[in-house]
From TrEMBL:
Part of the Bam complex. One of its GO terms (cellular component) is cell outer membrane. Residues 40-234 form the Outer membrane lipoprotein BamD-like domain. Its main location: membrane. InterPro entries: BamD (IPR017689), BamD-like (IPR039565), TPR-like_helical_dom_sf (IPR011990). This is Outer membrane protein assembly factor BamD. One of its GO terms (biological process) is Gram-negative-bacterium-type cell outer membrane assembly. SUPFAM superfamilies: TPR-like. It is a lipid-anchor. The lineage of its organism: Bacteria, Pseudomonadati, Pseudomonadota, Alphaproteobacteria, Rhodobacterales. Transmembrane segments: none annotated.
Amino acid sequence: MARSKISASLVAVLLAGMTLTGCSSGKDGDADRKNLDRFTAEEIYKRGEFELENSAKPKDAVFYFSEVERLYPYSEWAKRALIMEAYASHRAKEYEDARSAAQRFIDTYPGDEDAAYAQYLLALSYYDQIDEVGRDQGLTFQALQSLREVIERYPDSEYARSAILKFDLAFDHLAAKEMEIGRYYLKRGHYTAAINRFRVVVEEFQTTTQTPEALMRLVEAYLALGLYPEAQTAGAILGHNFQSSPFYRDAYQQLRGQGLSADATGDNWLTKVYRQMIQGEWL
């Protein structure tokens, strides 16, 4: 836009932003924060944008966006400020605040074009905490549920594809935690406990990247217990689906060392999985 075409209203907004900028630090800044009602919703919103773009503390922007919502509720600027409050809170890693703002947006403006983004932000607030939760997988399950909401409610939105990718990664994360616990038990000779964990991966997380190792570990655990039909069937499933995997080669060597082959045999939960697989209902 040429300088001569800058509107008077935009000049007013810019001047207001400069005024707010000049009063944003120190005791005077704190006092000015208490008197924001002398500014318009747009002016306060612009100040929030300025903080978000220029401050190292996104939480500073949250204050201004939340003030728009407080001082000018149900206005168009309040709606815009609410979604930005959720975004700024997420950037500040204030995940509970991000969820709260995003949920308020969804509840207040369910039909708005930004509702899909609000749902996506809500899901991200869980997803981005997955690596922080140790063995507690509650947040991972909540991330999966929220990501599914994005996928099912807004399948044509620009966020659906990213939600699908993150859903798969979160799902894989759950399987990886089962594997971690299973390996822990296996290493200490608690074979039954280990088998229970690997079975969960095979039955409930069969589309994840953890499945080949889970099958190989089942071969190892069942061989240790002398349950050869189960070990052979686990090897057969592994060979049928992941023959090029190094986990199959490892399982094959273990079976061969016991004079066994990777064939489905016996009548157990793994033979049922094998039959389902051959019929195209598994993997």
